[in-house]
Amino acid sequence: MTDDREQLTRLKKVLADRPPAFPPAERAAFVAQYFARREEFLAVAARHGSPLYVLEPAVLRERADRFRAAFGRVFPGLGVYYAVKSNNCPEVARTFLAAGLGLDVSSGVELSLALSLDAKDIVFSGPGKVDAELDLALGHADRVVVLMDSFAELERLQRLAAAAGVTVRAGVRLTTDPRGLWRKFGIVLDRLADFFTAAAACPNIRLEGLQAHSSWNLDPGRQIAFLAALGKTLAAMPAADRAKIRFVDIGGGYWPEEGEWALDAATPAGQLERLLNLEGPYPPAGPFRTPATPIDEFADQIAAAVKEHLAPHVRCRICMEPGRWLVHRGMHLLMTVVDRKDAALVITDAGTNAVGWERFELDYFPVLNLTRPSTVETPCHVLGCLCTPHDVWGYSYYGADVQPGDVLLIPTQGAYTFSLRQEFIKPLPRLATI
Ligand SMILES: Cc1ncc(COP(=O)(O)O)c(C=O)c1O
Fold first, then answer.
1. pTM score, two decimals?
2. Measured between alpha carbons, how far is 325 from 332 in angstroms, rounded to an integer?
3. Cα angle 293-296-302, degrees, rounded to a multiple of 5
């Protein structure tokens, strides 16, 4: 009985609890920035066709500089490795390389890309690396540090390195959460000392670093909690092993400061309403914005945690593998209205195969009608051209009207879209650089 009442109280709390609203004035200010550059975007659509990915290398350079400034201030000798998986467009990786970043790759395909771009400083992480991938890394051991994922991978890497007559620099990935699905990554902290012992028996492997990564961090809480746990583990390890640690790579996972923009369907309250078959408010609540910690504060708080938990035990370089924070603002999607079924239902020439997942059923991103600009947001189903209803770009648009032939822009689609795009029904958008 008490359990039932407790459950009911919890359900009521979830239903009553939504993130803060994304204020309309701030949404309008966001779209105004891009409407101000309307001619430039319309010109690129006219030149390259539609649908189109539009890349802005200048934005990527600015992000790389800002990220390095934030963390370089607190970590002398900082290493920043761009996580290629977040956007595998070669031009993106090339831009970050030219800006002086290293590359973080997670497969043979990504490693081949990095090598083809002449990257000189590469970290290769990821579970389930196959022999051919490890061999590729060993063939370029002067440029690649292998971040090992398990004891078995250590043994395999030793065998392959001995066969190739190579000594390889390596690190080991540590599990940040030993429960649930994240346990697939790395080794648990309790086995770190054993790993150093095992690696000492591998003459072709120079174990010189640690790596950990947790994702989707709106604030540094999870990263700091892990650093505290790592500090305890290091304190208990033999000093001779600690002295071998030349780098600690604390991964990526920094959320851009604009915060997380969500539709009601993505909130626990919205999800629960759907499960309970409740109508929910109409029009749906939202959009919402959950704030994210600005990058300078991320840096200050992580630096304080490193000072408290790691510095007493190791003197080493700090490295990072940001993806989303660097690329999010650097790429946009352009598309054209093909069909207008009524004033509040239009179909575009792009399908969400262009981004590879049903992002816009959950995430909120403004759709801008560049042809008829206005900072007024009008409710409308803006849908793609695939033969599936799960093909949504948005539930509204910014514009004075919407008609066939109008060019629409969805800004800031740089992270986890381009690299997830897939051949499904419609061709992939082309790519243009401005
Ligand atoms: C090992 C590793 N490093 C870095 C990243 C980049 O994370 P983010 O794009 O959230 O910064 C990922 C993303 O999945 C990852 O798996």
1. 0.96
2. 15
3. 80
Residue 123, token pair as written in the block: 């970290």
Domains and CATH numbers, the chain: 23-54+328-433 (2.40.37.10), 57-327 (3.20.20.10)
In this prediction, residues 228-256 reach a mean pLDDT of 97
Q: What is the DSSP string of 281-306?
A: SSSPP--EEE----HHHHHHHHHHHI
pLDDT digits (tens, 9 = 90+) for 171-201: 999 999 999 999 999 999 999 999 999 999 9
Q: 171 CB less than 6 Å from ligand 1?
A: no
**Minimal CA–CA distance to 103: which of 296, 319, 413, 306?**
319
Contact 90, 53 (CB under 8 A): no
Q: Which atom of ligand 1 is nearest to the CA of 416?
A: 9
Average the pLDDT over each of 123-127, 278-282, 305-309, 419-423 and give the range with the smallest value: 278-282
Which of 63, 85, 260, 319 gets mutated to test ligand 1 (max ligand atoms within 8 A of its CB)?
85
Q: How many distinct helices (H) and strands (E) make up the chain?
A: 14, 18
- Long-range pairs, 173-181, Cβ under 8 A, ≥24: 173/125, 173/147, 173/148, 173/149, 173/210, 173/211, 173/212, 173/213, 174/210, 174/211, 174/212, 174/226, 174/230, 176/212, 176/213, 176/214, 176/222, 176/226, 177/214
CA of 213 to the centre of ligand 1 (A): 7
- Measured in angstroms, how far is the CA atom of residue 320 from the centroid of ligand 1? 9
Q: Residue 2 — pLDDT band, cuts 50, 70, 90?
A: low
Is 324 close to ligand 1, i.e. is its CB under 6 Å away? yes
How many of the other CB atoms lie within 10 Å of CB of 13?
Answer: 11
Could you give the CA distance from residue 372 to residue 406 in angstroms, rounded to a whole number?
A: 8
* Alpha-carbon separation of residue 411 from 147, 295, 327, 332, 383 (angstroms): 34, 21, 12, 4, 16
